[in-house]
Amino acid sequence: MDKVVIYCDGSCSPNPGNGGWAAVLLAPGHKKRREISGAEVKTTNNRMEILAAVRALEQLTKPSDVTLYTDSRYLCDALAKRWIVKWQANGWLTTLKEPVKNQDLWEQVLALTAKHTVALKWLKGHADNTEINRCDELANAARRGL
Fold first, then answer.
1. Residue 116 among the catalytic residues
2. Tell me: the pLDDT tens digits for 103-146?
């Protein structure tokens, strides 16, 4: 199984407002690098964070061993703490019996993570990680380009 490292980030200003997302995909064994980004109007920061992960995982053409880095606690916790599984089991309702926001994207996350082995790692945003900072630059540039 190929190993892939993904860094992803989302941006929104104001929040809600225009948003951007970006990801850097690295295939260390093949010395490959791919940068992707995009933008949407009338969105939220959380939605852009999730969309960055979705778009990155969609780039993978075969099952892979993925390490996904994000500065989004929401994205990390939803998967690592299995909130997403509980939401699905509860008919996409939160513990407060409210509809889960971004259900459409969470369903895509479930489908994509079922194809791969994914380990999520949280990184502090706007810190000293070159790749997460590059994602931030790309996401903001995409947002500003709207």
1. no
2. 999 999 999 999 999 999 999 877 889 999 999 999 999 999 99
